[in-house]
Amino acid sequence: MLAAIEVSTRISSVAVLDLFGEGEPEEMRLPDDVESAASLVPALEELLSQKGLTAQDLLAVAVAVGPGSFTGIRVGLATAQGLCLPANLPAFGICTLDALAENLRVDGWTGEAVALIDAQRGEMFAGHYQVEAEGILIVEPPRIITPAELPAMLTQGRAWIVGPGALKYEDQIRHHLGADAMFAFTAAHRPRASSVARLALNWWKEGLRPTAAELQPLYLRPPASDEKQLGFRNVE
Hints:
The protein is an alpha/beta fold and 236 residues long. It contains eight helices and ten strands. The chain has a five-stranded mixed sheet, sandwiched between helices. The longest helix has 15 residues, at 70-84.
């Protein structure tokens, strides 16, 4: 069984997935009124308990490593490491933007896509993808852009726009892209632990077994000096 953790933004969830079965991930969204650090492990335990399992039955853990909330990323990484280290389980670090592109694939939306997360300061963390029915292809590495810089990223004219950053900057994005911006349905904009799980499953099937020591946050910019005062739920 694989446990997946998505707490890199304020939209948090966990999921479990049978690594050897054909079923879909089972996901639980964390309460908005409870800090993820407090609700994360109990939520995972509940999902496992529903299957008659415990954390001792896990074979691997996947976690969204960002970009996103500095505090949320740290919480997710620390939890994943805590689950993996006792039994030396494989630990898959999944880019949050990749998982948003996976949302599109699962929902049947294919073509050029840009995944966006709010980076504050009028900027967005952006990932550029080609989404196919069989999987997602990374067109270029994640970077920080403004809404005005988005048109320069596109290579095919029209593109799917997805992610919490897309919702925050929707008016500006539509201003700069016009009809070339195809916004995904609302549910696809939410980071999903289930998509983190699916991408980790691909790595597992390829024979990759990264360790907890290899987990690294993907910040894209150094943490702000006042990060400790921001609090996890004040940042996307």
